Amino acid sequence: MDRIPNWLKWLIVAAAFVVLAVMVLAVDRRASRVEMPPPDNTFGIYRGADSAAS
To answer: Which residues cross the membrane (predicted)?
Structure first.
């Protein structure tokens, strides 16, 4: 690693960040198009807005 110039090390780090950002944006765009199912209230963990006040 000592023979690699410092500017090249930083370029590799920056390229890794760019690749990660592109993957995060791709996953975010894909997830925003997936329809979510309604919540499953099998165990009764969801309360209505009126019962939360009491």
So the answer is: 6-27
| Distance, CA of 50 to CA of 39 (rounded, Å) | 18
What's 38's DSSP letter? P
pLDDT level of residue 54 (50, 70, 90 thresholds): very low
SS (H, E, C) 1-54: CCCCCHHHHHHHHHHHHHHHHHHHHHHHHHHHCCCCCCCCCCCCCCCCHHHHCC
Contact 39, 46 (CB under 8 A): yes
